[in-house]
C-alpha cells in the first residue's frame, strides 16, 4: 500500500496542494502529475498513471493548482499555472531524499500543457501527456503543438482517437498511443496507460 503525504504548496496566487505517494521500496524516480482545466487529480487516467508508476518503483506526486484548491473551476492564466507548477517542483525537490532523483513530469489536458511548457525549467527527464489538447475544438489553426514539440525531453502521449482537441503526430522523441474510440475524457484508455507507461519509464530512466 502506498504511503501518502499531503502538503500545502505556497504560491503567489494562494496555496496549492501536493499528495505524495511512495512505492513499496526505495523510489528510483519521481513522477509529478497535474490535472486538467476543469477537473482534479482524481481523473481516472491520472490515477491509472499513478498506480502504474508506483508499481514501477516511482514516487508519485499529484499537484492541485491553487485555483482548484480555492474552489474555482475557471483556470488561472498560463503564466500563473506554470509558476505554481514550478513551486510544486521545488516543494517536491525539497523533500528529503528526492532532490537527486530523476524527475518525470506530466498531466492530463491543461496539466499536460503546463508540464511541457516547464519541462526544461523543472529539470525533467521526460513528459507524460494524457489527452494533450493540440488545438481548441474546431480551431486547428490555433495549434498548441509547439508546446509539445518544445518540451525538449522524450514524451509519451496517450490520446483518444476521437478527441475533438486533435491528435498529435508521432515525432522524434515522442511516442503517441491512440485509444480507439475514445474522446478527450480518455474513457477506456486506462488500460493503454497501464501498458505503455512502464516501458516508457524504463526507456527514459535507463533501467
UniProtKB/TrEMBL annotation:
<feature type="domain" description="KANL3/Tex30 alpha/beta hydrolase-like">
    <location>
        <begin position="28"/>
        <end position="168"/>
    </location>
</feature>
<dbReference type="InterPro" id="IPR026555">
    <property type="entry name" value="NSL3/Tex30"/>
</dbReference>
<dbReference type="InterPro" id="IPR046879">
    <property type="entry name" value="KANL3/Tex30_Abhydrolase"/>
</dbReference>
<protein>
    <recommendedName>
        <fullName>KANL3/Tex30 alpha/beta hydrolase-like domain-containing protein</fullName>
    </recommendedName>
</protein>
<dbReference type="Pfam" id="PF20408">
    <property type="entry name" value="Abhydrolase_11"/>
</dbReference>
<dbReference type="InterPro" id="IPR029058">
    <property type="entry name" value="AB_hydrolase_fold"/>
</dbReference>
Amino acid at each position: 500500500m502506498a504511503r501518502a503525504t499531503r502538503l500545502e504548496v505556497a504560491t503567489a496566487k494562494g496555496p496549492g496542494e501536493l499528495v505524495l505517494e511512495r512505492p513499496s521500496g526505495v523510489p528510483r524516480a519521481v513522477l509529478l502529475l497535474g490535472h486538467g482545466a476543469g477537473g482534479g487529480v482524481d481523473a481516472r487516467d491520472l490515477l491509472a498513471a499513478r498506480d502504474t508508476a508506483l508499481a514501477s518503483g516511482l514516487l508519485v506526486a499529484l499537484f492541485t493548482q491553487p485555483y482548484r484548491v480555492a474552489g474555482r473551476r475557471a483556470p488561472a492564466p498560463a503564466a500563473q499555472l506554470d509558476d505554481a507548477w514550478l513551486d510544486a517542483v521545488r516543494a517536491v525537490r525539497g523533500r528529503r531524499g528526492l532532490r537527486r532523483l530523476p524527475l518525470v513530469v506530466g498531466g492530463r489536458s491543461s496539466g499536460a500543457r503546463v508540464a511541457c511548457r516547464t519541462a526544461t525549467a523543472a529539470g525533467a527527464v521526460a513528459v507524460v501527456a494524457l489527452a494533450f489538447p493540440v488545438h481548441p475544438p474546431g480551431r486547428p489553426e490555433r495549434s498548441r503543438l509547439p508546446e509539445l514539440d518544445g518540451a525538449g525531453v522524450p514524451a509519451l502521449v496517450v490520446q483518444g482517437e476521437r478527441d475533438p482537441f486533435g491528435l498529435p503526430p508521432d515525432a522524434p522523441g515522442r511516442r503517441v498511443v491512440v485509444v480507439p474510440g475514445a474522446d478527450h475524457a480518455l474513457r477506456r484508455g486506462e488500460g493503454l496507460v497501464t501498458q505503455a507507461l512502464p516501458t516508457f519509464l524504463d526507456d527514459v530512466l535507463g533501467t
